[in-house]
Structures are given as structure tokens and as C-alpha cells.
Amino acid sequence: MTMTFRCVMGLTLIAWALTTPGAARSEAFGYFGKIGPRYWGELSPEWETCGKGATQSPVDFRHFSSQRKFSIHYGSTKGEIFNNGHTIEVETMRNNTLTLDGVAYELAQIHFHTASEHTVKGRGFEMEMHLVHTSTDGSIAVIGVFLKRGPGNGVLAPSGSVV
């Protein structure tokens, strides 16, 4: 399905995570129990940093501050929406740019985690949106946005969606 959407940045930017190209991927992770975020660093040797680092997923923001310089320039774009087996994902057409420490990253996709992958002082949120950006060298920059349930949306109600 193709759709047009506008990304509005009136959101609180909570998490920055930078990774390198070729990050390990596996179907053997989850969000609860023995395969949940607390155990990701133990699930695969390639994921060891998840259990030791401070800027890898999952991150518990206790005393986070950043002096990194960034700017965001988002506009209208088109994208493909699909269920990848773990989440709903939107692959964008890359007309939206994040510049971080002088490096340009194009918005490649948006996906959601429920419950949130990251926490603040040990507290999780109902959902987290990740805006995944890539640079020309294949590096990745991710903006995480915590989402809380709000009042019902009258515009979506006629579609039969849960609002």
C-alpha cells in the first residue's frame, strides 16, 4: 500500500542510538521474558554490547544529556506500509534529513515497539516509535520517541480501528 504522510516534529526526542553497518539480526529476540530487552546482550555474541553499553538498545535513560548538534528537515513523502513480522513498518522515499554532528542521514523507515524498548529511570512506555536514518556510508542514526495513549481519535473511528 502506498500512502502520503507528513511527519510533524512536535514530538519529544528521547533516544539517540548510533550503530554501524552490518549489525546482527536474528529472529530469536522478543520484548518479554527470557528473550526480552534485559537479556538481549546474552542472546548472541554479536549483541554483547547491548548488555554492557550505554547507547545501545535497550537504553535506560537515568542521567542523559547530549551536547551533540543536530537538525531535522522533514517534509511530505511517500512510503510503503507493511507488517515485517515484528512490527508495523513504513519504508520512506528518503526526502527527509537528519544532520547529526555534520553528517547527513536520510529517513529510511519508521517502526514501532510496544511496549517501549527504552526506559527512563526504569519506567517504560506503552509504545515507542523509531525513526531510522542512514548515511551514505551505511551508518545508522535512530530517533526514538516515547508514545503514551491519548484520547480516542474521531477521524479514525469510522474505519473500525481501535482508537
Key phrases:
single chain; 163 residues; mainly beta; Carbonic Anhydrase II; nine-stranded antiparallel beta sheet; two-stranded parallel ribbon; 5% helix; globular; disordered N terminus
Topology summary:
Elements: E1 2-6, E2 15-19, H1 40-43, H2 49-52, E3 60-61, E4 70-73, E5 76-83, E6 88-92, E7 97-100, E8 103-113, E9 119-120, E10 127-134, E11 140-147
Parallel strand pairs: 3-9
Antiparallel strand pairs: 1-5, 2-11, 4-7, 5-6, 6-8, 7-8, 8-10, 10-11
Structural class: mainly beta
The shape, in one word, is globular
| Average of the residue pLDDT scores | 75
The helix tally amounts to 2
Largest sheet: 9 strands, antiparallel
Q: In CATH terms, what is the fold-level topology of the domain at 2-24 and 59-149?
A: Carbonic Anhydrase II
Estimated helix fraction: under 10%
Please give the number of β-strands: 11
Which strand-content bin applies to the residues? 35-45%
CATH architecture of the domain at 2-24 and 59-149: Roll
Name the CATH superfamily assignment of the domain at 2-24 and 59-149. Answer: Alpha carbonic anhydrase
Order of helices and strands: EEHHEEEEEEEEE
Radius of gyration over all CA atoms, rounded: 16 Å
**Low-pLDDT segments, ≥5 res:** 1-27
Distance between the termini: 21 Å
CATH C-level name of the domain at 2-24 and 59-149: Alpha Beta
